[in-house]
Amino acid sequence: MKIGIIESKDFSAIALSELSKIAEVQLWNGKDLDHFIADKDCLFIRLSIEWNNAVLSKAKALKYLCSPTTGLNHIDLNYCESNEIQVISLKGETSFLNTIRATPEHTLGLIIALLRNYAHAFIQKAEDWNRDAFKGDEIYGNTIGIIGLGRVGAILADYLHQMGAFIRFYDPNVTHDIYPQSDSIQDLIDKSQIIVLCSSYDLATGSILSHEHLDAMQNKYFVNTARAELYDETYLVQLASKHHFKGLAIDVIQNEQGNRQHLQALLDNIHNSNLIVTPHIAGATHQSMPKTELYIAQKLTQLI
Fold first, then answer.
1. pLDDT of residue 203
2. According to a count of CB atoms within 10 Å of the terminal CB, is the N or C end of the chain lower?
3. 270 inside domain
4. In total, how many domains does the chain have?
5. In terms of domains, do 142 and 240 share one?
């Protein structure tokens, strides 16, 4: 059996050791992907490549595709199913994922950064020392609406609750004994000053935030560390360019493996608005990534 590691930089040494016990492991050097994957029975991937029909069709021997992620929109799942390629991921691994706190921590950080104007308040010149120019808002006493109270949303809600925020949530698949539930996304937006998108993305469901939902966020804070496919990204960029949001923080974009034209359109406005963009780093910590890679390696080992 041959296993290929596509993005090998900082890949878990323990996971590599475990994999080497069951197969020949090769690390991709970044050149001639088609040739590298042609004879691999298993591939470990991250997010730099879109694993669509055109790419996967070159992996003639592929039986297992391992992605230490919960979101799978970078993989053509229909192709995998049709070609009997088993996708091994973190999706549904609730008990293990409760020990992974990188994404809720990053989301909390983005909320604080927006409220306190960190995008501009981290000064670089002495003449920028002006505390009155950077007055912000507090989490304490603010109403924060969370769309999607799954693992990330629930952990984040507990963090914010401990900091004195009033929490509301929208999630038709969840009930909660402490936090009040909105029966619609519109109701949640109307009753919240800060809206956080933590919902998982389902290709069948697609977008969940309409233009009207985004319109209703005027002069509110909006944070997304989930997926950009959950709304019309073009429309979001248009609103951001008009300073529609009081603050906007995103960690995800659509088609991040592509030309990123929407990203550049956002960044063109970054100097004159309360806008923070991070390059999909919510789950990327020195603690979380090795743990998830080892977990996926162990799942693979149990299947073979």
1. 65
2. C
3. yes
4. 2
5. yes
Cα distances (Å, whole numbers) of residue 264 to 237, 260, 261, 268, 281 = 10, 7, 5, 6, 18
Answer yes or no: do 167 and 88 share one domain: no
Per residue in 80-91, pLDDT (tens digit) is 999 999 999 999
Token pair 């592929």 in the structure block, residue = 62
Is this structure's pTM higher than 0.70?
yes
pLDDT of res. 102: 96
Residue 97 lies in a domain: no
DSSP H helices, 66-135, are 77-82, 94-97, 102-115, 118-121
Shared-domain flag, residues 172 and 261: yes
Q: How far is residue 231's CA from residue 214's CA, in Å, rounded to a whole number?
A: 9
Residue with tokens 């949001």: 245
Query: Does residue 68 surpass a pLDDT of 80?
Result: yes
In this structure, the answer to whether residues 41 and 118 fall within a common structural domain is: no
* Sheet containing 166-170, strands listed edge to edge, beginning at the edge strand earlier in sequence: 166-170, 143-147, 194-197, 221-224, 247-250, 275-277
Per-residue pLDDT tens for 97-147? 999 999 999 999 999 999 999 999 998 899 999 999 999 999 999 999 999
In this structure, what CATH number is given to the domain that contains residue 141? Answer: 3.40.50.720
Q: Are residues 22 and 154 in the same domain?
A: no
pLDDT of residue 180: 97
Say if residue 271's pLDDT is above 90.
no
Asked if 11 and 5 touch (Cβ cutoff 8 Å), the reply is yes
Say how far apart CA 149 and CA 177 lie, in whole Å: 12
Share of the chain above pLDDT 70, in %: 99
In which domain, by residue range, is 134 found? 102-277
Q: Can you list the alpha helix ranges (DSSP code H) found in the chain?
A: 13-20, 33-37, 53-56, 77-82, 94-97, 102-115, 118-121, 151-162, 185-190, 211-215, 233-241, 261-267, 288-303
